Amino acid sequence: MLRSPAACGLQWMAAAASSSATAQAALPATPAPAARVSDVSSPDAIVAAVYDVISGPGARKRDWNRLRSLFVPGARVVHTGKDGVNTARVMGVEDYIQAAGPFLEGEGFFEREVHRVVDRYGDIAQAFSIYESRHATSDAKPFQRGINSFQLMCDGRRLWVVTIYRRGERPDRPIPKRFGG
């Protein structure tokens, strides 16, 4: 296990380690599965791990325990907007797996990051990850682009995803140039 906030890849303040006990006491009792150290050692690694788990050809089972291991207990996945309407569907990780799993494993789905903007403060970070989604890696054009907003926390040993808040790009709401649009 990583032993210092700096090892989280963000050179976060040493205060993160002392606040770790307080943060851990507030978490639900159900622990996440053990994570691969390489998946939770930096913002690059944890974002890449999320994309790696959800991506794959149709009829390929995803490693849902690996996904669970990336999220702090009680984490949320939020999908916003559908058909031009501003809505929010807030799900726990298990809800997300149940809702998205059949599509991801049935259709073939490959999501890759094309740009990222990260802001940090102490032991927290917010990453705007601009993505492109395809049904096959050979597809010339993505069927969807958008922004996944990752809220990340370093507990002094590793990174956790606290929330993924997602918004697909629309013709009337293109991705801004400052985010790689």
Condensed summary:
With 181 residues, the protein is of the alpha+beta class. It has helices at residues 15-25, 43-54, 64-70, 93-107; strands spanning 71-82, 85-92, 110-121, 124-134, 144-154, 159-168. It has a single domain (5-25, 36-179), classed as Nuclear Transport Factor 2, Chain: A, CATH 3.10.450.50.
Task: Describe, in plain words, how this protein is organized in 3D.
Helix 2 packs antiparallel against helix 3. The protein is of the alpha+beta class and about 180 residues long. It has one domain: Nuclear Transport Factor 2, Chain: A (Roll), CATH 3.10.450. It has a 6-stranded mixed β-sheet. The longest helix has 15 residues. Helix content is about 25%, strand content about 35%. Keywords: Signal. InterPro entries: NTF2-like_dom_sf. This is Nuclear transport factor 2 family protein.
Write the layout of secondary structure elements.
Layout: H1 15-25, H2 43-54, H3 64-70, E1 71-82, E2 85-92, H4 93-107, E3 110-121, E4 124-134, E5 144-154, E6 159-168
Parallel strand pairs: 1-6
Antiparallel strand pairs: 1-2, 3-4, 4-5, 5-6
Helix pairs in contact: 2-3
Keywords:
25% helix; 6 strands; disordered N terminus; alpha+beta; six-stranded mixed sheet; Nuclear Transport Factor 2, Chain: A; 181 residues
